[in-house]
Design brief:
Length: 282
Amino acid sequence: MSSALPVVRDVPALRAEIAAWRKTGLRVGLVPTMGALHEGHLSLVQTAKEKCDRVIASLFVNPRQFAPHEDFDRYPRDEAGDSAMLAGAGCDLLYAPDRAAMYPAGFSTNVIVSDVSTPLEGEFRPHFFGGVATVVSKLLLQALPDAAYFGEKDYQQLQVIKRMTRDLDIPVEIVGCATVREHDGLAMSSRNAYLSADERRVAARLNHIMHDAIKAARGGEAITEVEAEAARHIAAAGFASVDYIAIRDAETLQPIADLSRPARILAAAWLGKTRLIDNMAV
Ligand code: AMP
């Protein structure tokens, strides 16, 4: 059993803890999360621990990145369980602000990152990256860690955060960490808990279809053809619908005609009421 993890719930308490560490010259890492933690989140904590003397995890289900029709109310919440997992992974501090601490009355600022936010997720969840960029810029400025750790699972989000941090001169190193997968290749996600047993079986097909698409693209098949074929396979596997499956420039996420530059395949598809996303290097 690991001992209880200290928790702070507002900015002054967070900064007081960090200031004490800073006095002795310690390097500080931050891992932002929305909780309902799994091995994917813990891998970020482990990577942070390798590079930092102290690691903070934040837990905040950010209302601004959910549209009114999305799953904010039913998003899984288990602070006690999350805290125990973080303590077991060697995390040093939990920062769990409530909504009023993060967005006090009168809060009126929105951080909008253009270009890289626009395609893919930006088309299907137009509110999403504004909410993410706003909360992540706040978390980075509240903690001012040396480095902050994000999963490649949310690849476009990682690119948006890198762009925002550069554009706003936020003095924090942004580190991307590889996607952690289940045994059958399904990318771990807090939303996998929504899946029925049948949906869970279908969900595992997504990563195999993406692997096949990568092979076809590398074999010289036209990218638009590869994308169309992969979308057909996702539908045939039993997904309710496909928001997108696309091979894009790995940095800008704009369409590409060939693989002469680093590329990424990204997908979003629905199983019942659950939306899954995944991506891989091509
Ligand atoms: P979330 O709690 O879903 O907002 O995720 C918090 C952080 O964990 C984000 O940086 C995610 O990209 C990362 N993450 C979520 N799932 C995984 C995974 N399967 N592998 C690696 N990182 C992940």
